[in-house]
Each structure stands twice: as C-alpha cells, then as structure tokens.
Amino acid sequence: MSKTVLVIEDEPNISEAIGFILSRDGWRVANHFNGVDAVEAVRTRNPDLVILDVMLPGRSGYDILQELRASATTADLPVLLLTARGQSKDRELAESYGASRFMTKPFSNAEVLEAVRDLARD
Amino acid sequence: MLRTTLTGSRIRERRVIRGLRQAELARRAGISASYLNLIEHNRRRIGGKLLLDIAAALEVEASLLSEGAEAALIATLREAAADRPRAGAELDMLEEFAGRFPGWAALASEQHRAIASLEQTVEALTDRLTHDPHLAASLHEVLSTITAIHSTASILVETKELEPEWRERFHRNISEDSQRLSEGAQHLVAELDAGQRKDATLNAPQDEVEAFLSARGFHIAELERGGDATVQDVLTGGEEGLTSAAALDLARRILTRYREDVARLPVAGVVEAIRSADEIDPAALAARFGVETGRMMRRLATLPGAVAAELGGPFGLVVCDASGTLTFRRPLPSFPLPRFGAACPLWPLFQSLSRPLVPIRQTLRLASRSEGRFTVHAVAEPVGVMRAGREPLFEAHMLILPSPAAPDDDSDRRVGVTCRICPKLNCRGRREPSIMAETG
Fold first, then answer.
1. pLDDT tens, position by position, B213-271
2. Chain A residues with CB inside 8 Å of B177's CB?
C-alpha cells in the first residue's frame, strides 16, 4: 500500500502542484489549508510524512511542529518545513523545533521530491 | 583588606564640603583621626552607632552616607565594564569611583544604557523582515506565488503525456498566479517606499524640518501679509508637528527669517515685478526692491504653489554656509538635492563662495538619467551686519529654475547631485567612486 503525505499549506496552487508531483511518484496525498486545526488533521489522517508551511493562517508552522514533537505518537514523524525566509536564524529555529528538513521558497519540484524520498527512506 | 564600600568616600566628601579637618570630625565622633582616615579610604566598614555619630557631626542623614542608593548604579557600571573588558576598567576601584565621582559614574552608566538601546535599534533596523510584519507578509506572498508558478510551470514542461484537463487546470493556475504576483510585487514596492519615508523622518532634525516645510509646499500662508500667526503658532500648530528640540530650533530660525523676508518682499509686488521682466533674474529683482539677492531667491522659492506654477516653477533653492554645509534645501523632483552635505563641488553655489557678492548665472545639465536642463543663479553674501575688525561670515544661495530643453546645445556644463550616484566620467570634481555603471 502506498504511503500517505499530508500537505499543510494555505496556498492552494502550491498544494495542488506538490500534490500532483507526489501522486505521480506513488504517494497518496492529503491536503490541509489552515493552521488552526492542523495538529488534529495530522492525528486523524495519520500520515507517513508531513509537509508543513511555516506561515499559515491561524497558527504558525513552528507552533504546530512543537506540538507534534511534544506528543509521543508524532514525535518521530518526518516533517518537511517550508518557509519563505532562508536566513540562517530561521533554519536554526526550524532545527531547534525538530524539523526533519527545511526548505526555502521558491523551491523546485525536483527538490521537494528528493527531500520527500529521503525522508521516507530514513 | 576589607571589601571597600561607598560610605567612606561619602564621609570624606561631606567632610570636605563642610570644611572640616579629619582630626576635628574624628574628635566630634569620638574616634581617632587615623581610624577615621581608614574609614574614609574605605578600608574599614562602618555602620551602627558610629555611622550615626559621624552623620550627626556632619549634620546629614545617616542614610545619605550609607550604601543603597547607588547599588543600581554600581550594578550598571559593573555590567558596562564586563561588556568592554579590553578597556581595563579597575573593577576593584568601582565603588570608590562611584562614590567619589557620582556625576561621572552616572554619565558612564547612562551612556552604557544608551549604547545598549541603540544596539537594539540597529539590530531591529538591519533585520527589517523580523520587525516589519507588513513587509514580511508582502514578501511571503510574492515568494509563495513564485513557488506556485515555478512548480506548476515545471509540471507543464516536464510531465510527458499530461492529461488535457490537468494541462488546462495548470494553465489556469499559472494565469491566476501571475496576476497575483504582479499585485504582490506592487505591494512589496509600496512597503519598501513606505519604509524609506519612515526612515527619512527618523533621521536628522534637518530631515524633520524639510518634511515639515515640504508638507506646506514651502509656503507658509499664515506668515504672509494678512496672516496673523506668529512663528510660534506655526511651529506648534499643524499636524505634521516637529518633535525634537533640535528640529524646533532649526525651524524657528527658518521661519523667523521667512517673516523678515515677507516684510521686505510682499508676494504681489514680487510677482508683478517678475511679470514685467523678460526673465527671472534674482539679482535684478533684488536690486529693484533694494534687498539682498539671497533674500529674493528665498522669496522666489517660497511663492504660493499656484503662483509659482504660473511663472514656470516651482523653483528649487539650496543654501549653504561658508563650510559648504547645506543649511536649507528645497529640492525639485527633477533636481534632487543630496542629504545635508556631500553635494557636487561643481555647483555654482560653491563657486560663489570664492567670489562673494558676485551674482552667478549658469545653464546646467544634471548628469543623471533624465539629464534635465536648468538655469541656476548663485550668490554668496555676508550674514548679518558687517563690522570693522570682524571677519564676515558668508552664506551662499543657489536658485534652481527649470529650463526648456535645448537638445543641440552641448555647451551646457554638466554637474551632478552627489558623487555616489553621479554617472559623469572623468570628472575633475570627483571625490569618491560612483555606484552608477557608467563610471570607470
């Protein structure tokens, strides 16, 4: 059975594009578009991997990541964090909150695919 | 040796203020002079009854002598010393220093705090993305949209045998996103512009005053004839108020002068004189009214907007003191003036300083993208009354009149605004390299 990725991104066209390339790569893709109930979405869908945007309406991706890491069931869930800011400070912040990977917008499809494949293998 | 405390230094200070000798104070407090000497040099702790006795002998409250009030000061100084270890501040003398030189100690402590707060401000300004949520949001929007377009476009290019419905869908997404991208880019530019304006008002008192005058089109109707406002009214009224004391002082001087100019040169009379002349020549106009040429230039640069427009204006004006420092500037959109100081040395404004009282008239081109053409008039005149035995102080005015373009005429002199942004090649006035590409 194919693995599931949950894309938490408020930008529908990015979601759609990422969803398209990942499903072509054999993933089952679920989308979630806001930050408020993102943690719940992760719990109910129980994905194998999460792609999480940092700037989400309602709640920051950093907050969501911290809550996921604090819970035993999602502490080891691979999370690819997306941000529009590539400053080293942001990268450090992402790492300290326990992001498995950190990617700066704009990224290419190939980069996303490679990161997701790497994370799934670990 | 005992830990030093402030108290001894204060006792000594108070005793000296009262003009008491050490032996006398010791006698009144019932101790030996040598013991008091140890106390005063902070080599013996003091407290309890002896402190009360000494305080009584000095006729001060004991609390004034004892430790406490300066604890915060000492802590700040300790912090300051720790921040700059290479200065080699004598930490073991810290309390004695604070006790013997309370004013200097307070100064050092205040400066330490001021430095810390400035460092924070600098950090905030250099990291605008963190501290300017609007800018961060605009940038995020643009980057997100670019990501969506980039991602969608690669799918369209790279996916073989893409189903027509997907293809159509992705085309539509790109079209939508490109529309959003152009809006987002406009927002971003607006944010950056707003930031620049915000910074400009934060900078110097000169900038504050210029913004104040600029908001009024450099014409202060209340100070003109028929207006009944005083300089103070203008300074305190209005919404674009001046905040810093330095800016208020600067504006007061400018407005006081404005008032004097109004008294000598009514707008209606000046306009009539200009209309009956062939051209705007501030020296000739000044002669007609029996005033200094600089005064006439100031008047021409502060005409009401509608009147100036009718005469081909508005007109720019820049004033500098004998050191070349710009003290007043009314820029034109086509003839921007640099921040105070650091102007182009080829300006007639500066030439006039070496030929005092001689009116200079030149037609110039501004070395810039637009290469605007201008007729400028400059003159250097003494400030105030000239007196025998006192060197006169000169000040120069330069009036900038937009001039009709004459494309065939290459004889115009080319000048710049300021070296950093001037594209002029092989300039004998160049003082620093230009950031413009044309320069070698």
1. 888 889 998 888 877 788 888 887 765 667 777 788 889 999 999 999 999 999 999 99
2. 13
The answer to whether the CB atoms of A13 and B129 lie below 8 A apart is no
Residue of chain B whose Cα is closest to the Cα of A10: B144
User: Distance between terminal CA atoms of chain B?
Assistant: 69
Domain that holds residue A22: 4-121
Put simply, the chain A residues between 52 and 91 with a CB less than 8 A from any chain B CB are 55, 84-85, 87
- Exposure string over B100-137, b if 16+ CB within 10 A, otherwise e: bebeebeebbeebeeeeeeeeeeeeeeeeeeebeebbb
In this predicted structure, what is the pLDDT of residue B437? 47
Nearest CA in chain B to A83: B140
Cβ contact, residue pair B155, A55, below 8 Å? no
With 0-12 / 13-18 / 19 or more C-beta atoms within 10 angstroms meaning exposed / middle / buried, residue B224 is middle
Contact A16 B146 (CB under 8 A): no
Contact assignment for B159 to A24 by CB distance below 8 Å: yes
Q: Is A11 on the interface with B (CB under 8 A)?
A: yes
Could you tell me the two tokens for B362?
A: 């030149």
SS (H, E, C) B102-153: HHHHHHHHHHHHHHHHHHHHHHHHHCHHHHCHHHHHHHHHHHHHHHHHHHHH
- Smallest CA–CA distance, residue B173 to chain A, in Å, is 7
Copy the structure tokens of residue B267.
């707008």
User: Counting every residue, how long is chain A?
Assistant: 122
- Give the pLDDT confidence of A17-51 residue by residue, as tens digits: 999 999 999 999 999 998 889 999 999 999 999 99
* ipTM > 0.90 for the complex: no
Supply the CATH number for residue A87's domain.
Answer: 3.40.50.2300
End-to-end CA distance of chain A, in Å?
18
Q: Does A105 touch chain B (CB under 8 A)?
A: yes
Q: Are A24 and B162 in contact (CB under 8 A)?
A: no
Cα A74 to chain centroid, rounded: 13
Q: Does A109 contact B140 at a Cβ distance shorter than 8 Å?
A: no
Residues of B in contact with A108 (CB under 8 A): 150-151, 154
Q: Which residues of B touch A (CB under 8 A)?
A: 129, 136, 139-140, 143-148, 150-152, 154-155, 158-159, 166, 169-170, 173, 176-177
pTM across the whole model:
0.47
Note the pLDDT tens digit of each residue in B150-168.
999 999 998 888 899 999 9
